[in-house]
Structure formats: structure tokens, C-alpha cells
Amino acid sequence: MSELVMQTPTPEVRVLTMARSARRNALSRSLISELCHAIQQAETDGIRALVVAGEGPSFSAGADFSGLEGDGSDQDYDDEMSRLTGALEESPLISVAAVQGACIGAGLDLALACDFRVAASDAVFALPAVKMGILYNPQRLAQILPKFSHAAAMRLLLLADKLDQTEALAAGVATHPAQSGQALTMATDLASRAARLPPLAQRTSKAFVKAFHRPDFAAEDWQARRTELLTSDERRTALRLARKPKT
After folding, report:
1. 4-195 placed in CATH 3.90.226.10
2. How far apart are CA 118 and CA 184, in angstroms?
């Protein structure tokens, strides 16, 4: 039985809903695999933006402990999660996490892999690896820690603190606030707005932001890509539309 529900509310937006509410949408290996496949399928289908949501009152409680052994073999789970987060981060699609309730551990990792995170007023964010006697996947930490403040990182990692909506917004963990029960609606609206923008410029801009934080960043390469955009059909169309009188 599928653990993921896929809906396409508009031709360019797809909603992926984790359907394990009885387990608070804990990320099983099979759910991770379904999410990876769904991302690839969305790209093939010409989708422009993805919304990732959880069924029921929680976004995701994190890793499904029933699939972990408590020894070194759990490294495989880290690898599977890294494939999922990498698929979202490297995808040309714009991705939005619709977070309500618990967004914990691997669930937070999944949300942070999305380009935007809409947090409902009841959203709670935590990364409680220290409670489980481990350090969260160091390779992922190196990628996600720059996304939010040092103070938030210390609270999440050293104290296993929980951040509410207000704290998450201030720390950069969340990007948009929503009222209780409205995270999915706002996330879908945000995805629809993103999907209306010129695709080539959007994909290039997303790739630029990711490349900027890498040690091999080369500004001249991106200047060349900008020059290509200046002479593209997409840019000419956008300029023509911008010149039309506003009514």
C-alpha cells in the first residue's frame, strides 16, 4: 500500500502528502523511496513546483525507528535520506514544505531540503539526535546548519530544544507563517506563484544560490550564464510583457 498521496491541483504544481498519520508520518525507507521516485516523476511530467505535506496533525515525526537497528547498519538510512534531500535540493523544481504540528529529526531535514517552509501556528521544529545518543548525519549538518542562526543550531543540537513558529521564523528555519490549518493552502499558493515565473531564469537562480556556498564558486561562470539569459527567448518574452500597459 502506498505511503504517499500525489495530487496535481494545477498543471504545474504537484502536492506530495506523506500518508502515515498513524505513525505521525515517520519516514520509513519505503516512504523515502516513494518520495524520491515522485520527485523524478514530477520532473518528467513537466511539473514546475512541488508541495511536500503530511497527513493529519503532524508534518513528520522523523525517522521510523522500527526500521533502525541501533548499530552501524543504520548508516544506510542516512544514505537514503541524503538521496532524498539531495534530490530536492538539486532539482530544478521549486519545493515548498507545508509544516503543521511536529517537524522532527529527519522530518526537519526533509523540510530544510525544500526551498521554502510554510509553518502553521502549531508547528514545532526539533532535531533531537542528542537524546538518541548520536550526532545527526554530519554531512547533512554541514549543509543545513548555514540555513539558520548559530543560536538556533546550538539549541537544536545541544539541548534538543523545540522551536515554535515564531522562533523558527526568526531563526530562518521557517520562511512563511500560516494560521493553524492553513499551511497547505498557503504552500500551494506559493508553489503556484513560483510556477508562473520564467522557468529558465528561475532554475538558474536556484542553482546560483546553491553554488554560491561552495568553495569552488566562480563568479565569472555565472556572469556567462547571465549573458545567455539576456539573449534568451524567455527574457525577450518577459520584457515584452513587462512593457505592456498596466490596466
Report:
1. yes
2. 8
